[in-house]
Amino acid sequence: MSKNFEKVKRFYDAKLWPLSWVVNAVDKWITAAEYQEITGKEYEKE
């Protein structure tokens, strides 16, 4: 698990971060698999 996974999940679940911010965190703070775990959506690179 990435160092910042819990932080990103907590912020997203509390609606402090929009989905776009979680997308931006992939590769910087979390993995694509963690993105899917947090959001329930498959990560698609832009």
TrEMBL record:
<dbReference type="Pfam" id="PF09693">
    <property type="entry name" value="Phage_XkdX"/>
</dbReference>
<protein>
    <submittedName>
        <fullName>XkdX family protein</fullName>
    </submittedName>
</protein>
<dbReference type="InterPro" id="IPR010022">
    <property type="entry name" value="XkdX"/>
</dbReference>
